[in-house]
């Protein structure tokens, strides 16, 4: 009996220990390094081709980088309960497709990094129908495909990321951005467009970005900023950090407005270092040191206004010529009338001659008479 009691006690302890172990958070996946104290899981360079299915539920920061996740399918995280996941880093994974609802099962997600992935497909419904509480989105070097850029614009314009405060679009070779791309980002504070190939900002609206504080446009191909863009900058009271360095500024008459704005504004950081790239005679000259005498502005540079003025002048000249022509006709109306009568009589005599010849040719008697006239 004592032996049987000891056996029962041992079984009871085993069951209790088993229940206690069952209540522990999930085990760490083999290729990953987990830290429950720091609420962090790192799966770096582990040759993963999919999101590990057994991530611990305590994770708040998840790094899956340098792997081979070619696609992120719908419900990639739905099989797991990750209620506290706030930061997700998926950079450098060779991702080509982020499908609809791929990130829909992450209710606490605040930071997402998809940088360094050659994306070809980015579904506007990647966060599901109800949107996401996401605050920071990094897409550095991930928008080389133009279709992905349009999909991102559709996602932003749909209101799926209304809480976004930081957006990084650097290193993507962007030349032009879709119109109205940032109109549904009311709390955006930081926008990074550096190291692209932007040639102009005419189709970009910043008017809805009332909380924008930092705008990085450095290392692009901007030649000039027009008055419409400068007016938008003036209308953003929170915008205090604009980076315009390393652009190809064209220092002709069109740059006068930009120079005037730089001299009066305190929004541009490092404006003393902005220099001309073209023409050759202005190469290296600081924009802040440009005066009107340095520019040949005798000819208007606003081509549409110049053409409009030319068309108005041409219309006035043609109207004046028409009026003079009508006046001449009125003053010489009698002579013109006589001239018209003379032309009418001449035409009538000519037609009568043709009619006489036709009658002769049509009458066989006259025809025979004409043929025997030598007898």
Give short descriptive properties of this protein:
ten-stranded mixed sheet; alpha/beta; three-stranded parallel sheet; 375 residues; 31% helix
Instruction: Compute the CA-based radius of gyration.
Output: 40 Å
The portion of residues assigned to helices is: 25-40%
Number of strands: 15
Mean pLDDT figure: 86
Q: Largest sheet, if any?
A: 10 strands, mixed
Q: How much strand?
A: 5-15%
Q: Which structural class fits the helix and strand makeup?
A: alpha/beta
Basic shape: elongated
Poorly predicted regions are 3-25
- Oligomeric form: single chain
Ends apart, CA distance between termini: 171 Å
String of helices and strands? HEEEEEEEEEHEEEHEEHEHHH
Sheet with the most strands: spatial strand order: 1-2-3-5-7-9-10-11-12-13
Total of helices: 7
Write the layout of secondary structure elements.
Layout: H1 2-22, E1 33-35, E2 40-44, E3 61-65, E4 71-72, E5 87-89, E6 97-98, E7 111-113, E8 121-122, E9 136-138, H2 146-157, E10 166-168, E11 190-192, E12 214-216, H3 227-234, E13 241-243, E14 249-250, H4 256-264, E15 276-278, H5 303-331, H6 333-362, H7 364-371
Parallel strand pairs: 2-3, 3-5, 4-6, 5-7, 6-8, 7-9, 9-10, 10-11, 11-12, 12-13, 14-15
Antiparallel strand pairs: 1-2
What would you note in describing this structure?
With 375 residues, the protein is α/β, with parallel strands linked by helices. The protein is 31% helix and 12% strand. It has seven helices and 15 strands. The radius of gyration is 40 Å and the shape is elongated. Residues 3-25 have low confidence and may be disordered.
């Amino acid at each position: 009996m004592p032996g049987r009691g000891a056996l029962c006690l041992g079984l009871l302890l085993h069951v209790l220990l088993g229940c206690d172990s069952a209540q522990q958070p999930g085990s760490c996946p083999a290729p990953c390094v987990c830290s429950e104290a720091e609420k962090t899981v790192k799966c770096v360079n582990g040759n993963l081709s999919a999101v590990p299915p057994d991530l611990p539920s305590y994770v708040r920061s998840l790094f899956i980088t340098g792997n081979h996740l070619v696609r992120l399918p719908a419900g990639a995280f739905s099989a797991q309960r990750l209620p506290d996941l706030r930061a997700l880093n998926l950079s450098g994974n060779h991702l080509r497709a982020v499908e609809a609802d791929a990130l829909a099962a992450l209710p606490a997600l605040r930071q997402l990094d998809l940088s360094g992935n050659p994306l070809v497909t980015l579904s506007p419904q990647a966060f599901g129908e109800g949107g996401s509480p996401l605050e920071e989105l990094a897409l550095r070097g991930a928008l080389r495909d133009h279709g992905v850029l349009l999909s991102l614009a559709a996602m932003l314009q749909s209101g799926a990321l209304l809480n976004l405060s930081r957006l990084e679009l650097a290193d993507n070779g962007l030349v032009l951005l879709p119109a109205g791309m940032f109109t549904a980002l009311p709390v955006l504070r930081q926008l990074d467009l550096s190291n692209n190939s932007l040639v102009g900002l005419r189709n970009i609206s910043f008017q809805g970005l009332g909380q924008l504080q930092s705008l990085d446009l450095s290392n692009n191909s901007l030649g000039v900023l027009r008055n419409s863009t400068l007016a938008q900058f003036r209308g953003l009271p929170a915008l205090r950090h604009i980076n315009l360095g390393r652009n190809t500024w064209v220092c002709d008459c069109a740059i006068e407005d930009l120079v005037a704005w730089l001299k009066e504004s305190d929004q541009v950081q490092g404006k003393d270092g902005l220099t001309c790239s073209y023409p050759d005679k202005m190469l290296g000259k600081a924009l802040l040191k440009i005066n009107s005498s340095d520019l040949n502005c005798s000819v208007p540079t606003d081509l549409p206004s110049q053409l409009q003025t030319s068309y108005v002048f041409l219309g006035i000249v043609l109207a004046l010529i028409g009026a003079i022509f009508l006046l001449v006709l009125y003053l010489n109306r009698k002579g013109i009338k006589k001239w018209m009568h003379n032309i009418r009589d001449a035409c009538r005599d000519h037609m009568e001659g043709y009619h006489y010849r036709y009658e002769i040719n049509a009458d066989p008697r006259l025809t025979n008479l004409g043929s025997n006239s030598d007898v």
